[in-house]
Amino acid sequence: MIIEQLQKKYTELELKLHPDCKKLLDEWHSLKEKYSGETFGFQVRDKVIQLPFTYKSLSGTSIKKVYLPRYSDWGDILKWQLQENVPGEFPYTAGVFPLKREGEDPTRMFAGEGGPERTNKRFHYVSLGQPAHRLSTAFDSVTLYGEDPDLRPDIYGKIGNSGVSIATVDDAKKLYSGFDLCDPKTSVSMTINGPAPIILAFFMNAAIDQECEKYIAENVIQEPRTKNQDLPTYNGDLPAGNNGLGLQLLGLSGSDVLPKDVYEQLKLKALQAVRGTVQADILKEDQAQNTCIFSTEFSLKLMGDVQEYFIQNKVRNFYSVSISGYHIAEAGANPITQLAFTLANGFTYVEYYLSRGMKIDDFAPNLSFFFSNGMDPEYSVIGRVARRIWAKAMKHKYKANERSQKLKYHIQTSGRSLHAQEIDFNDIRTTLQALYALYDNCNSLHTNAYDEAITTPTEESVRRAMAIQLIINRELGTAKNENPNQGSFLIEELTDLVEEAVLTEFKRITERGGVLGAMERMYQRNKIQEESLHYEHLKHTGEFPIVGVNTFLSKNGSPTIIPSEVIRSTEEEKQFQISALNAFKKRHAEKSEAALKRLQEVAINNGNLFEELMETVKCCSLGQITHALFEVGGQYRRSM
């Protein structure tokens, strides 16, 4: 009798469970079985991947890549699955993929200095012997503001300093020469915002022309450069690892030398194969970094045009925007503000793309994120909170599919935490920040060089920075496990606290008319400045201890280090960039004016500007295009 009553009560309670919750509980036993073997299989698009699931230490201890909790209570099991779950399962708190890639570290090193040839040499230096080539490009301020190299006093001194000088499609070809841009093991990130669509068009054309070069070689077509000797060349010797791919069509386009139907096939093939990211996040530029060049409305239109072009041409492996919190943090924001502003900007782009008639599952997988990792405790959960909030919003508000629910992000260790005093200590900070990122399952990582507080990194400092990641990934035993944060009381509590704080910040932004309304009131800029002032005040009073800066000083008082080597572009590099640009303009003088006119007409008629830019960049320079667009799209002016 009692057993029957209990059975009846059990059934009543079971029926009250939400079907999704019931499903999770029913599948718990099979999930544990799945994670108990020596190998683990999962599906990525159309392929089933089988990977080893255990690692054996020198002592013979077998370490699994993923551990499940030992809960038996249904409440505990259900709460864990709804809020945490295994990596690769909603809400993706622990990671968006079941396991990490084999044979590809998340390393992505940032480089940019001098002309395209010098940065190309640095790329090959950091990539030599690596199984995958993950490049990240820094541009000089001349390029960031959409200008051409020039003798003008306000431009000349900045050419090739603190980033690479790129003014034409030929510069882009030289910059990435020797890397097969359509190889699935090559991935390129470009840190550019205001003129991002133009630089992206340079890059895409470089990738397309590489495919054209391969086709010419395979089909034994006559070398195109012999027909015209007045063409640009790579300045200097090719570095080790550069096989010359991308240089055969310097000064030319594949469309100049191949039949139209062949070129279009190769173009589509390249577009669907390239992997990488362009930053192109104009909202955070207004809020924090300040490299806006077009009006905000026109910049948003350009971003939408890029995404629309990606959808039409099935560009699935390249991110059309990297929604960035890094620069918000570098400008002074604390980790909670960084995360809240970044996610709010992301949802603003979602709403804008939807308003243009794009479908959520057509564009959401092309969005990526970029965060800073500092020393504060909240940084240890920044990825967990971001993934959870994004996944729930995508699933429940936007009814997006599984691929759209997965937030993928890049981490760069904090530049603001690098100090010009006791610079050797910077590597220690970077190591701890990298550990935060890797334990939190970031998708890619850049570790800063210790000397970046005083100069562009040297080869020696970049090698040390790369070693930090490699030592963690390949030597640190606990890093062989892929969910080390799960089960920690501290991490779980921090995750809940940071999530609540981010959602509270969303309410403040909503009260001010959303992200764009808050920007008009300069809410984001003011909050970032207040938080920056708070940090600086605590640093200067010594209340916030920084070893080697305001405490634990050396017997000499830890003075600011004067670098033995400062990386700057040379006079020869500056002059070469200007002369190469002038030669490019002269070569295309007959075509450029008409091409710029067509571009302006597309803007006036509200056509897709990126589609036209893909043609315009073949004969026009960055500065020519920027100034032509100023006339039809408006130049940025900050609201004061």
Tell me about this structure.
The chain is of the alpha/beta class and 640 residues long. Among the domains are: 2-71, no CATH class; 105-278 and 553-640, no CATH class. It is 49% helix and 9% strand. It has 27 helices and 13 strands. The protein has helices at 2-16, 19-26, 28-34, 74-83, 116-127, 141-144, 153-156, 169-175, 196-218, 254-257, 260-273, 282-289, 296-312, 326-330, 335-355, 360-363, 382-397, 402-405, 426-439, 459-474, 489-511, 514-520, 523-541, 571-587, 589-604, 609-616, 622-633, and strands at residues 39-44, 47-52, 54-56, 62-64, 109-111, 133-138, 186-191, 276-278, 318-319, 321-324, 367-373, 409-413, 444-446. It has a five-stranded parallel β-sheet, covered by helices on one side. A four-stranded parallel β-sheet has the order 10-11-12-13. Strands 1-2 form a two-stranded antiparallel sheet. α19 (426-439) links the parallel β12 and β13. α21 (489-511) crosses α22 (514-520) and α25 packs antiparallel against α26 (609-616). The N and C termini lie far apart (78 Å).
What does the secondary structure layout of this molecule look like, with pairings?
Blueprint: H1 2-16, H2 19-26, H3 28-34, E1 39-44, E2 47-52, E3 54-56, E4 62-64, H4 74-83, E5 109-111, H5 116-127, E6 133-138, H6 141-144, H7 153-156, H8 169-175, E7 186-191, H9 196-218, H10 254-257, H11 260-273, E8 276-278, H12 282-289, H13 296-312, E9 318-319, E10 321-324, H14 326-330, H15 335-355, H16 360-363, E11 367-373, H17 382-397, H18 402-405, E12 409-413, H19 426-439, E13 444-446, H20 459-474, H21 489-511, H22 514-520, H23 523-541, H24 571-587, H25 589-604, H26 609-616, H27 622-633
Parallel strand pairs: 5-6, 6-7, 7-8, 8-9, 10-11, 11-12, 12-13
Antiparallel strand pairs: 1-2, 3-4
Helix pairs in contact: 5-8, 8-9, 9-11, 9-26, 15-21, 17-21, 19-20, 21-22, 25-26, 25-27
